[in-house]
Specification:
By secondary structure, this protein is α/β, with parallel strands linked by helices. It contains seven helices and 13 strands. It starts with 9 loop residues before the first strand and ends with a strand. The structure holds zinc ion.
Length: 243
């Protein structure tokens, strides 16, 4: 979980590049001479996000491919942490579900608190994760201004890929998954993961109960996603799942 560990994008479908970051993941869609980022890591992942964008750009046949859009599954600091700094370097639009926009702009905050975590700190995995989260800027101000609401259920093309944003709530009030029907890819964010620094399990799983805004709703959403077919599943935490 070192914040400086190098990461390499893996092309899981043509023009769909998955990055397993130090403690959270992001995905880069490439096509039409542009890049679209889905989620964006902790604040300390800025150089890693930038280097992964640079690594993917030539794969489009256009080394100057510009980052034009960012899609956000949800507003937790390990998924939007680099966006303010990235925006000072690139001009792009940020999109989130209408119910998630206030969590991304930080007009509201739905995120695990220090009080939630304290009872678990005796566990080495939690202690290591907390240390990483704090060092990676997880407690800093990660508010993102000017977030455009997504039209849920409607297909829209980003960097040459048809994307269908779908409500998958419970982890946060507006958590969203992104289906790429032509690529047979499902980006699940934190509604379904395949690992987490606090978890001893490998494979498909829910995050620990303390991380969800509404645990019962998150459980129902998770059940639906487990049954939802896609050849490639890209979770917010843990490795790619191919089925
Ligand atoms: Zn989360």
């Amino acid at each position: 979980m070192s914040p400086t560990r190098a990461v390499a994008p893996v092309e899981v479908a043509p023009g769909v590049h998955f990055v397993e970051g130090p403690a959270s993941n992001w995905t880069i869609l490439a096509g039409d001479g542009t890049l679209t980022l889905v989620d964006a890591g902790y604040p300390a992942d800025l150089d890693l996000v930038e280097s992964s964008l640079r690594a993917v750009a030539p794969a489009t046949g256009d080394g100057d491919a510009r980052l034009t859009s960012v899609l956000v599954t949800h507003g937790h600091s390990d998924h939007i942490g680099t966006l303010s700094a990235l925006r000072r370097r690139h001009g792009f639009e940020v999109f989130a579900a209408p119910a998630e926009v206030p969590n991304v702009t930080r007009e509201q905050l739905h995120q695990v608190t220090v009080g939630d975590v304290l009872p678990h700190l005796y566990k080495p995995r939690f202690a290591r994760w907390v240390l990483h989260a704090v060092r990676a800027g997880g407690l800093g101000d990660v508010a993102v201004a000017d977030v455009a609401p997504l039209d849920l259920g409607a297909s829209r093309t980003f960097s040459g890929h048809r994307v269908v944003p779908t409500a998958a709530v419970g982890h946060t009030p507006g958590h969203t998954v992104f289906a790429l029907p032509d690529d047979d890819v499902l980006i699940t964010g934190d509604a379904l993961v395949t690992g987490h620094p606090t978890s001893r399990l490998d494979g498909v799983q829910m995050l620990h109960p303390i991380f969800h805004s509404d645990l019962a709703e998150a459980g129902r959403t998770y059940g639906r996603l487990v049954d939802r077919g896609a050849r490639v599943v890209l979770p917010g935490h843990g490795p790619v799942l191919r089925r």
